[in-house]
Amino acid sequence: MVAERRKKGQRGHAAAYMTRAKALRKLQLSLTDFRRLCILKGIFPREPRKKRADARHTYYLNKDIQYLAHEPLICKFRELHAHLRKVKRARARREHARAAQLQRSAPVYSLDHLVRERYPTFRDALEDLDDALTTIHLFAEMPQLPMRQTNVSSSGDGYLPIDRQRLDNFARLAQEWQYFVASCPGALRKVFVSVRGYYFEACVQGVRILWAQPHRFHQCVPDEVDLRIMSTFLEFYECLLRMVNFRLYHSVLGTRYPPVWNAEQDHADGLLAQRFRTGRVGKDRARRPPAATETRISSERVAAVKAQLPEVVRAAVAEEVDEERPPAEKATVATRAPDATAPELPGDETTHIPLHSNATIFRGMTFFLCRETPVHVLEMVLRACGADAVGFEAVEARASPLNEADARITHVICDRPVEQLTSRRLGREYLQPQWVFDCVNESFRLPYGLYTVGQPLPPHLSPWASLTDVADTELQGEVNAHGEYVPAYRQYLQRIKRGERNVPLPPELSSEVVQGAVTRTETPPAALVEADEEAGAWAEQGALTTDHPTGRPRPAAAAAAAEPSDRQQLAKMMLSRRKRRLYDRLVARQRRAAQQATALQDKRARLLKPSDSDLHQ
Amino acid sequence: MVTVAAANGWEAGDVPRTGAGLGSVHRGQDAESNDSSDSEYDPVGDVPLRWYDGYDHVGYDLEGARIVRKRPPSALERLAGTEAADDWRVLYDARSGNEIRLNDDQVALLLRLCEGSSAGGGGDVGGGTEEVIAWAPSQPHPLDSATESRRRFEPSRHEARQVAYLVRGLREGRIRPMRVLLREREEQRSLRRYHYDLWGGESEEAAADAPLSRAARAHQTRRLPPPKPLPPGHAESYNPPPEYLPTDGEAEAWRKADPEDRLLPFLPRRYASLRQVPAYEHLLRERFERCLDLYLCPRVLKSRERIEDPATLLPPLPDPHELRPFPSADRLRYVDAAAAAATVPSRLRAVAVYPGSGQWLATAAEDGHVRVFDVMSGCLLQRWNVAEMLCGAGYRPDAGSGNAAGGETAAAVAMPVVDVRWIPAAIFGDETAATLDAQSVQHPPYLVAACDACVVLFAVPLPATTLAPDSVDDRLTHADTPVGEAPPGVEWQMHDDVALGRRFLLIRHPQRVRRLEVHHRGDYLSAVVGHHAARTTVYIHQLSRRRSHIPFRKRLSTVQCTAFHPSRPFFFVASQQHIRVYSLTTQSLAKRLLPGVKWISSLTVHPGGDHVLCGSYDRRLCWFDLDAGERPYRSMHNFDRAVRAVAVHDALPLFACADDSGRVHVFHGTVYDRLDQDPLLVPLCTMRGHQPVDGLGVFSVAFHPRLPWLFSVGADGQCVLWVERG
Predict the structure, then answer these.
(1) Residues with Cβ < 8 Å from B237, sequence gap 6 or more?
(2) Which of A156, A175, A196, A415 has the smallest number of CB atoms closer than 10 Å to its CB?
């Protein structure tokens, strides 16, 4: 008996994969449909250890393809193709009535079962929400797309066109999400204004979600962007986000979904709060009272928030349930409480105490947004962080819940030159929008002095880069524990957050501070000190000098710390080859980071030099 | 015609009245109708009006002059001049240029026509037959006289079937009316289909129990979530710190770089306020690329440890300070003043320390000298020009040798001494090897040196020895008679050097001697001989009986070096990539070691006899445990250049190696008696003292037999003593 000969690639690892061409043959699908199916089902190519046919081919897992083969969507695709053929024929015969009727009776498929399969638990869905949110937000801001791009279905491949109605849906979904974040105190963790747009980080049920939203401008569609692919992605994301929103509204907010759309405010550039009238879920569904919802949301920071969770917030939520009141009145009710119970205005000494909770940063403050600010973003951020009420400058006065003349307004966010700020009132802070974002990132109400209107702004730092621990009092010069460069302004903020008094400003900022800028009491003492004195004091702190008595290492020394010692070099001999390479890679990475940090420090020192000489002249 | 009209449901009685009614509107075709009195004649004639399209006139009068077209009043004129409520009744007749006002009957007629009902009104259906005849006077009878078919008067069976089919389908729900179907489709298409709690009840546990198909659950195990994009850094801010803004040079470099190589797709820029930030043009493209990555990019799971501090990878080794003593600093350099005066110092190829006492040190130089130094004082005791000695003995370099220079005297040819070893004096006398120490030395020791194709053995008259050199030479003479046969080409020769006044023993080989190794008792010598590294022969000489033989019947190619086992009858032969261990008693291969290196350079056996070290030109040092297997117990890698020499200390747990970068590495190596405990190998220090010359660093290292001292010689002509740092 001769053993049966086994052909190569029929067993083991190599046999677990198939090329894309083979998958197409097996599934009897066109490449277009296969791609759509892959996008919707979340199937992606794999990288086998050993490629059987050709290194250039794309490989899929056999099991994945088998899984695709049982998808009922494939039948729907076939129906859709048959239907498109009928439409096409009717059009060719100029039977327009029949074509129109056919179009209305086109086969419909839904994607909810795919969401269920891809995300068996709600947490899985939240973890994969970043891309969905970013894409939906991008298209929510999109104006009408050009015809040649939107009319994708006419080619007969069955893609949904991205028409006005769908774009409106995206906008609506995005606003629903923003409304959720805004009405979930403490959920919003970080905001960053980039050249690309706004980045947000929220923590929903313990999952960190990071999404981006573009600046409000016309987006042009480059030729290389295939909107049919985007359309398929959007189809799935729309479904996913809708179902996630449903659950969030029901289980977290305890309100009805979809929220009632306020038709009058639909097209006015109004506030989120006015566009929705959320209703409470019927008694059988609402097992959790709103107050309990609030405590659950803040359970991650129980100790910090619980004590401070104001009746205001609860009152606001309770009031929102009431559908009868107009929005303006709701705001009035919400703000009444702090006026009565918290007479102290921002600006007294208590504001320096770090609260370390985003839910209460703007507690007791009433904001008015000027029309040049990004109202849609600011409102969400302010409300998410506990602002009492937000008004905005509108052409029709009744669109805004707060009139500019309203006496309750404590803070005005505006972004215009001082000379164009015609009606300034005493008792109000006129701040630039960056103040709001920086406050959220630091979880701390920052002093106003640097952010008042007309001031050159301090740098806006990314909340995800060069992180430092507040408790970390021994910041290693300008480098944090991970060897990352920490900009001077972050160090300054850290020291303020630690409660240090008389912290000198970084020299590059102090030279820019307008002398004697009239602020109330929030201005840190340092801002009023002479600029050159500050420069000296900063230098004394050793950030730029080399020989500091407290023994902070120099930047160069910090860089050298990344180099392995002689003993480590010797011990490296005993490593296996794999570990030695890993070790070398890690050391090289550390060295690179140290070099980058050193380069930034050098650059800053070079930038500071002429200004220092100017100061001493 | 009548039949057709009847079949269509038209009533013949309507027709004349219709004609009368329309006459007022289309007067051109019905000239005798005189309903409207304002037009006497038609100036255009019976021609289509479109003939005059684009002209200002609509015909000619009797004189042939053009009749000018009258313009209808424009909408604006009509609006301006409107006073009557029934102005909508006025029509304009282009042919006559007159306005026609519709009366009530005409309006009613038009309305009926618009509704699609009969022109004459619904009231008088089934009028008289006279009109039919009047309408078609030439055809008083039907066109064919065929009798009507019976089927015309019976209900259609086909239709009955159709109706039955539809009724059955409707009852069964198989057929739905289009209205219902469309409503259903609209409902399906509406977004409300997604408005339910997909993830089940309140708790995640309940959701986990919810039915999910087996295939879907299996799919979950294959799930690889896509990596998330990095969050933005400071440089992407709309208002970054000034140190993140590019300088002119950096901006220029960014512009010149390929888009793939850029760290950021845009140049960081500072905007003084938020309202000045413009749109970002690549936004849609970047999102599109991310989407492409999500469904087109192959994913693979790579398990990667997150190691913040690379030092955690390093093995926990004891502190070198706990393992003292070990050599760590250079103390002394052994210098021959005559050689040092030379402009180019000759390389030192080998170093040997006198075994037992370690009082003396011999070095082999490429200029043909063997020098003996006092270890403690560093002074030169003896200097032998071996090349000259060979010339005096009548030796001529072999023609095949690389040093051959035909016709020249051998003295003029540089014959490097490649190896030098001490031979304990006891082998020729009656002392045993055990009594070899400084106090008991009576006989001067012997040195054996390899130079070209010869091995030279001579006594070294040192001050501490008691016997005169002459008597020593006599001892060499006594053991004069060869017992066995020498292999071809090998020749033993006793030579009296007249110039030196002494005699020495010469063993000639057919080819150049490359390596020399001495058995620990001193009676046996092994020599690796061959002009080329690829064709070598191993010879073993027995000094006491003046016997030579080739132990291997087959020629072993590329033998790098050999070694004797310190206590048992084993012989180690290192070829280019393997180490073979031969048993001398059974004369067979006992073991083969595979270091896994490309080119072995040196070989040493641990004094315990169970461990072997080998260095290699591909920068490795391997430690073998002979009991453990054929693979190295541990390989040490971190050398910059080829490892050329290895040495083990006889008494202390130390070993050392040297590489071509001129560095000497010292290790701690404890070997335990317990079989289940692995040797402890610890790198102790790296010492720099030799300058590499032409890519060659240290040639040889040797330990002091008792003290933690190390000697090294190198291509820079230096001989260095390394001692413990004070």
Answers:
(1) A192, A193, A194, A195, A459, A460, A461, A462, B244, B268
(2) A156
CA dihedral over B262, B264, B270, B276, signed as positive or negative = positive
Question: Quick one: A79 and A199 in the same domain?
Answer: no
Considering the segment(s) B319-336+560-726 as one domain, its CATH architecture is 7 Propeller (2.130)
Record: contact A573-B181, CB cut-off 8 A: no
Identify whether residues A503 and A364 lie together within a single domain. Answer: yes
pLDDT band for A545, please (50, 70, 90 cuts): very low
Helix (H), strand (E) at residue B491: strand B491-497
| Tally of CA atoms within 13 A in the half-sphere of A515 that contains its CB | 6
Task: Determine, yes or no, domain membership for A519.
Answer: yes
CB-count exposure of residue A49 (10 Å: 0-12, 13-18, 19+):
exposed
> Which of A595-609, B74-88, B185-199, B331-345 has the lowest average pLDDT?
B74-88
Residue to test with chain B: of A128, A145, A196, A245, most B Cβ within 10 A? A196
Q: What is the pLDDT at residue B126? A: 46
A550: in domain: no
Find the residue in A nearest to B237 (Cα): A194
Per-residue tokens: B667: 């290790």
Q: Are residues A120 and A56 in the same domain?
A: no
Instruction: Please check whether residues A267 and A385 belong to one and the same domain.
Output: no
Q: How far is B439 from chain A (nearest CA, A)?
A: 40
Tell me which chain A residues have a C-beta less than 8 angstroms from the C-beta of B239.
Answer: 193, 434, 457, 459-460
B279 shares contact with chain A (CB less than 8 Å): yes
Q: Do the Cβ atoms of B683 and A571 come within 8 Å?
A: yes
**What phi and psi values does residue A91 have, to the nearest 5 degrees?**
-65, -40
**Unique residue bearing structure tokens 């079962």:** A113
- Quote the minimal CA–CA distance from A600 to chain B in Å: 6
Distances from the Cα of B518 to the Cα of A254, B372, B552, angstroms: 93, 18, 18
Residues A235, A166 share a domain: yes
Cβ–Cβ < 8 Å for A273, A335? no
Domain boundaries, chain B: 2-135, 319-336+560-726, 354-520
CB pair distance less than 8 Å for A193 and B178: no
Answer whether residue A254 is part of any domain: yes
Contact status, residue B709 vs residue B349, Cβ threshold 8 Å? no
Burial degree of A127 (CB within 10 A; 0-12, 13-18, 19+): middle
Residues B594-607: pLDDT tens digits? 999 999 999 999 99
Rounded Cα distance between B497 and A145, Å, is 107
Mean pLDDT of B583-593: 92
End-to-end CA distance of chain B: 138
Q: Which residue has the higher pLDDT, B414 or A203?
A: A203
Assess whether A100 and A123 both reside in one domain: no
Are A220 and A255 in the same domain? yes
- Inspect the interface and report whether the beta carbons of A45 and B297 lie closer than 8 Å: yes
**Co-location of A105 and A118 in the same domain:** no
Lowest-pLDDT range of A261-275, A301-315, B404-418, B637-651? A301-315
- Distance in angstroms (rounded) separating the CA atoms of residues B608 and A518: 87
Q: Three-state SS for B535?
A: strand
Whether A233 is covered by a domain: the verdict is yes
Give how many domains chain A has, as a whole number.
Answer: 5
CATH code, A452: 3.40.50.10190
Which chain B residue is nearest to residue A195, measuring alpha carbons? B238
Which residue in B has a C-alpha nearest to residue A116's C-alpha? Answer: B198
pLDDT in tens, A453-472: 988 999 999 999 877 665 55
**Over the stretch A405-455, which tens digit does the pLDDT of each residue have?**
888 899 999 999 988 887 788 889 999 999 999 999 988 889 898 899 988
The chain B residue lying nearest A250, using CA atoms, is B197
